[in-house]
Amino acid sequence: MNCKGEFPHLVKMHEQYAKHGMTLVSMNIDPPDDAAVRQKVVEFLNDKHAHFPNLVIAEGAKRKDWLRAVGEEGLPATWVYDRKGKLVEKFNGVKYEEVEELVDDLVNKK
User: Fold this and answer.
1) pLDDT digits (tens, 9 = 90+) for 15-45
2) Angle at 10 (CA atoms; ends 9, 15), nearest 5 degrees
3) Most exposed residue of 18, 48, 73, 98, measured as fewest CB within 10 angstroms of its CB?
4) Pseudo-torsion of CA 33, 27, 43, 6, nearest 10°?
5) CATH placement of domain 3-107
6) What are the structural domain ranges in the chain?
7) Which DSSP category does 56 fall into?
């Protein structure tokens, strides 16, 4: 499954864990200067009720350059940070059950 197909899982996690202090941020790496693409991105986010920060990589970098910069093999990719801003784990590909299990542990950790 691709990023769009998995996005509803992120929205669900946001809805479930935001009240516990979890912040979700999505990132789009489509060309920011393409108005038609930008409009589709906005429509997609609105359609999926993505009520959290949604970032657009605006440096005009190509997708492969961005992926190389963060050291990921491909998308979707998920990074989980703790309350202190420390990276806990990086997930590459579709592993939302594992992501949710980790988030649940972190949110319920005192």
Assistant:
1) 999 998 888 888 887 777 788 988 998 999 9
2) 100
3) 73
4) 140
5) 3.40.30.10
6) 3-107
7) E
Answer positive or negative: Cα dihedral of 11, 8, 73, 34. negative
d(CA 89, CA 51): 24
Give the HSE-up count for residue 73: Cα atoms under 13 Å, Cβ half-sphere.
5
Task: Annotate 71-84 with three-state secondary structure.
Answer: CCCCCCEEEEECCC
